[in-house]
Amino acid sequence: MDNGDGTVTDTKYKLMWLKMDSYQKRGKWCSWKGAHKFVARLNEKKFAGHEDWRLPKSQECRNLYDHDSKNYDFNDDIVHIDYAFPEGCGSTYWCIEESGINAMAYNFYSDRGYHIRKSTKEAANMSCRPVRTAGKATVQGRTSATGRSRRE
After folding, report:
1. Domain boundaries in the chain?
2. Burial 30-41 (b: 16+ CB within 10 A, else e)
3. Given this model, what pLDDT does residue 120 score?
4. For the residues of 42-71, what is the DSSP string, one character each?
5. Residue 130's CB: how many other CB atoms inside 10 A?
6. Which one, of 58, 38, 53, lies nearest residue 105 by Cα?
7. Is there a contact between 131 and 54 (Cβ–Cβ < 8 Å)?
8. Distance between CA 130 and CA 133 in Å, rounded?
9. Among 21, 42, 54, 100, which has the highest number of CB atoms less than 10 A from its own CB?
10. What is the pLDDT of residue 123?
11. HSE on the CB side for 45, CA within 13 Å?
12. Helix (H, G, I), strand (E, B) or coil at 15
C-alpha cells in the first residue's frame, strides 16, 4: 500500500519500506557504512514522522520478493519487487545481519541472500531500502532467508 509520504507498507508482514531506495534518492551506490549513514539521516530527519528506520533483515527482503512482479532496475533489467516501488531501483540491498568482515545482501534478480565483504569493491553496485516495523505481522515469513527453497 502506497502511503503517499514516500513510504510503502506491506500489510501482510506489517513493514513500512522506504519507497525509493538509497540509489534513487542519492543517485549513487552506497557502501556498508554509507547504508548505515543513510538510515541515520532518515532517523535524524524523522522521515515520514518516524525515527525507527533500520536496514532490513534478509528474511524481510525475502518476504518482499515477488516472482510475479517484473519491475525494472537502474539498468532496465527485471527485478522481482512490487510495482508499488518505482522503476530505476537497485537490485541488491544491504541487510542488517553481519559477521566479522561480512554482511548479508539480498538480490532481487535471483531471489537470493548471500554474504559479501563490507568493504568490497562490489559495494559499488549496492543500495539500501530502509524499513521499520509497522505493527504485528498477520503471517509468518518464508522458511528460507536465502531464497529458492519455497514459494508461497
Report:
1. 7-133
2. bbbebbbebbee
3. 67
4. HHHHTGGG-S--BPPPHHHHHHHB-TT--E
5. 25
6. 58
7. yes
8. 11
9. 21
10. 62
11. 8
12. strand
Rg (alpha carbons) of the chain, rounded to whole number: 14
pLDDT of residue 54: 98
Is residue 94 within 8 A of residue 108, CB to CB? The reply is no
Q: Which three cell numbers stand for residue 150?
A: 519455497
Phi/psi region, residue 136 (left: phi>0; alpha: psi -120 to 50; beta: rest), is beta
61 close to 55: Cβ distance less than 8 angstroms: no
| 28 close to 35: Cβ distance less than 8 angstroms | no
Report the length, in residues, of the chain.
152
In a 10 Å sphere around its CB, with 0-12 CB exposed, 13-18 middle and 19+ buried, how is residue 100 labelled? Answer: exposed
Copy the grid coordinates of residue 52. 525507527
Q: In order along the chain (152 residues), what is the average pLDDT of each group of 10 residues?
A: 95 95 93 95 97 96 91 91 93 94 93 88 81 78 50 42
